[in-house]
User: What shape does this take?
Amino acid sequence: MRIMGLDVGSKTVGIALSDELGWTAQGLETLKINEEENVFGFDEIGKIIKEYEVGKVVVGLPKNMNGTIGPRGEASQFYARELEERFGIPAILWDERLTTVAAERVLLEADMSRKKRKKVIDKMAAVMILQGYLNSQN
Assistant: This one.
């Protein structure tokens, strides 16, 4: 059983998958969505869940630095509930504070151009969310 990690934004969803043993996370893709138009990419997510036999999803929960949950956190909670209802698999909310910042730092250290970073930042954040969860389980 694989585990999927998601970094949910208002315009994109970064997607990562674990290996079958649940040890490592690899970036898969960045899905374009449009929250304002209620286009959330659930059909595409469903195809990935089926194709890779995903048994659990870890959704990044962006908390404020003081631990409270703001509008982006509420959007992630909605996304997790929808995944559970639509696909019948558990969705775990995982504190993702600073994962995007950490992903940006890794890509900067790799000397990646701004244009290339923009294309992979969400996928990289999804990897960091999922790997954090996997590390906590092993």
Observations:
- Residues 11 and 56 are 23 Å apart (CA to CA).
- The chain has one domain: 2-137.
